[in-house]
């Protein structure tokens, strides 16, 4: 949902209704807590959080560019430098997330949003709904995430921590660089 504030700044809002809340209260509060604790240029920023009797509202920055695939298709060309710039933003953001002792657990192209389609440096990591704070190595056990991007440890039901290298290499090489080759 896109909202306009009185000063002309655009915001988007994640809305969770009563029926979703019955099972998702803790997940929504966890996501908000994690997002409010992160301040990085390549991570979606939450501006506020409030609730009414039956609905949670999470106002956040509005990203007009959609996800990375939409941006690439709009451009009609995608260079090796474009792929490298996007991969660098993704690595920088995930490094910061891990320094904050957080595991995203659902990194995938659909959760990589673009603020400005003409600028590779506006990539933002979004959707921290599965994110978890990590207090010890290999303390996570839940099998979740998008199967195409889940690390082998997760699929094998082994304990894991802040796994990222498999996921980032999967996104960067099979998606970004294969798209670069498509547009050559």
Task: Describe what you observe in this structure.
38% of the residues lie in helices and 15% in strands. Strand 1 and strand 2 form a beta hairpin. Helix 3 packs antiparallel against helix 5. The longest helix is centred in the N-terminal third of the chain and has 20 residues. The radius of gyration is 17 Å and the shape is globular. The N and C termini lie far apart (36 Å). The mean pLDDT is 76.
CA-based shape:
globular
Tally of DSSP β-strands: 8
Calculate Rg over CA atoms.
17 Å
Which percent range describes the beta-strand content? 15-25%
**What is the residue-mean pLDDT, rounded to a whole number?**
76
Total number of helices? 5
CATH topology of the largest domain: Transferase(Phosphotransferase), domain 1
Q: Do you know the CATH architecture of the largest domain?
A: Orthogonal Bundle
Query: For the largest beta sheet, what order do the strands appear in spatially?
Result: 1-2-4-3
**What is the number of independent domains?**
2
The major pleated sheet works out as: 4 strands, antiparallel
At the first level of CATH, the class of the largest domain is Mainly Alpha
- Give the uncertain stretches in residue-range form: none
Q: Helical content, roughly?
A: 25-40%
How would you classify the helix and strand content by structural class? alpha+beta
């Amino acid at each position: 949902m896109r909202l306009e504030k009185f000063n002309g700044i655009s915001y988007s809002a994640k809305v969770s209704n009563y029926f979703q809340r019955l099972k998702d209260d803790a997940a929504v509060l966890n996501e908000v807590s994690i997002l409010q604790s992160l301040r990085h240029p390549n991570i979606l920023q939450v501006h506020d959080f409030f609730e009414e009797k039956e609905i949670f509202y999470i106002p956040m920055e509005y990203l007009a560019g959609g996800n990375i695939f939409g941006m690439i298709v709009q451009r009609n060309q995608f260079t090796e430098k474009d792929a490298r710039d996007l991969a660098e933003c993704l690595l920088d953001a995930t490094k910061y997330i891990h320094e904050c002792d957080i595991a995203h657990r659902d990194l995938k192209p659909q959760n990589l949003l673009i603020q400005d389609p003409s600028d590779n440096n506006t990539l933002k990591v979004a959707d921290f709904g599965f994110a978890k704070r990590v207090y010890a190595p290999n303390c996570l056990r839940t099998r979740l995430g998008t199967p195409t991007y889940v690390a082998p440890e997760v699929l094998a039901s082994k304990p894991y921590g802040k796994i990222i290298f498999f996921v980032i290499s999967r996104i960067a090489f099979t998606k970004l660089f294969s798209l670069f080759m498509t547009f050559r």
